[in-house]
Write a structure and sequence with these properties.
Helix content is 26%, strand content 31%. By secondary structure, it is α+β, with helices and mostly antiparallel strands. Strand 24 (364-369) and strand 25 (372-376) form a beta hairpin. The longest helix is centred in the middle third of the chain and has 18 residues, at 202-219. The protein is globular and about 60 Å long.
Length: 389
């Protein structure tokens, strides 16, 4: 990761900055100005600020945003990706591309075309690891998209488990409509409630973002508003359309109806095939201990609901991690290195502190070189902290 201007860093190959804002409406107003000067930017609008990401070859982008007035804050910058190790990457790549609905990346991996869910890197490694991983992915997409992946019958307790040629597992979960009201037909529940709108002009995109932010602020709901060229994604985050998850005096279905009406008034058209949520699931013999490590290492927070193991990015920019019990008697499986691990990119000056925090939470450094630290959690699941240029 390299610094391109104060507060801006190249994170995972993308020039990235975070700007604080006092409300969703204020963040959307700044986002409108950003996409006016940087029409190809990916802008993630939150109730506390916005993240801007742009091709680093657009070298005048940071200066263009600086002219708008705000100062970038590098503290929140981080990016998670998932790494799958395989003796034959070409054998597993088509499977993951179908499951995820991702596009080919420049490094031979796969990337979310919407730049919302974590990239999947596929690296060659011939080490024999015949037992099941302790990390798998959940991928929630509209039912039609899951069916079009052509995976056939699944296995596991919910009948959705599939695996690539090496045995790396994923649960492709079909989403559903938010409800049966005509006024919410644009919304899919892919764990979170999501509506993706194609817009006819940059001005309409900016107007929809502003209208959605105003409606959400009036309702007191921390809506996620992601802007991409020609597209506005409205999202609750995982489960947060449900009252027990958000804990607010809001009926989200009513709010979704108002948001849909605003989108239609502005001529936006829903694209029902786009919603997606990718999360990571870790099996652990001691869930509490392993979960505490990942909260500390990632700077995440606990889900507010009792009895759930989810941990979440406070800004809802990174994927959710969830945990489930692993039978302690599966000693061989617990000893085997996973074929799947997580990478975390942070600014170089933040990396040593992040590693120290992970170690203090029960992790151990397995190796370190060239701005990369490979850290094992208390049960051997690996996190690679990347802080180099």
């Amino acid at each position: 990761m390299t610094q391109v201007e104060t507060g801006w860093w190249v994170v995972d190959g993308v020039a990235t900055a975070w700007f604080e804002a006092p409300s969703l409406t204020a963040a959307a107003a700044l986002a409108a100005r950003v996409v006016e000067v940087l029409p190809d930017a990916a802008v993630d609008v939150r109730a506390t600020g916005l993240r801007v990401r742009v091709d680093p070859r657009h070298t005048d982008a940071p200066a263009a945003v600086r002219e708008l007035g705000p100062a970038a804050d590098p503290a929140p910058l981080q990016q998670l990706s998932v790494v799958v190790e395989s003796p034959d990457p070409s054998a597993v790549r088509p499977f993951w591309q179908r499951v995820l609905g991702y596009a080919a990346g420049e490094d031979g991996g796969l990337v979310d075309p919407l730049r919302r869910d974590p990239a999947l890197r596929i690296r060659q490694d011939g080490e024999a690891r015949p037992l099941r991983n302790r990390i798998h992915l959940d991928v929630v997409r509209p039912a039609a998209a899951v069916g079009q992946a052509g995976l056939g019958a699944g296995s596991g307790p919910y009948g959705v488990r599939h695996a690539d040629a090496d045995g790396n597992e994923v649960d492709p979960v079909p989403g559903d409509a938010l409800g049966d009201r005509p006024g919410t037909a644009d919304w899919q529940t892919v764990f979170g409630a999501t509506a993706c709108y194609r817009t006819t002009s940059p001005a309409r995109q900016r107007d929809l973002a502003a209208a959605a932010a105003a409606l959400a602020d009036d309702a007191g709901f921390p809506l996620l508003v992601d802007l991409r060229p020609g597209l506005v994604v409205l999202d609750t985050g995982k489960d947060l359309w449900e009252e027990d998850a958000h804990g607010l005096p809001v009926d989200f279905t009513d709010l979704a109806g108002h948001l849909q009406a605003a989108a239609h008034d502005l001529g936006a058209t829903a694209d029902p095939g786009l919603p997606r949520l990718v999360q990571l699931f870790l099996d652990a013999a001691d869930v509490a201990t392993v979960r505490a490590f990942w909260i500390a290492a990632l700077g995440y927070a606990e889900d507010r609901r009792a009895g759930l193991t989810d941990v979440v990015d406070p800004r809802r920019l990174g994927p959710v991690l969830a945990f489930q019990d692993l039978d302690p008697s599966e000693t061989e499986r617990r000893r085997q290195r996973n074929r799947v691990h997580v990478e975390l990119a942070v600014p170089p000056d933040a990396a040593p502190g992040r590693v120290a925090t992970a170690v203090a939470a029960g992790g151990r450094v397995l190796d370190a070189a060239d701005g990369r630290w490979r850290v094992a959690d208390p049960e051997g699941n690996e996190l690679v902290v990347v802080g180099g240029a």
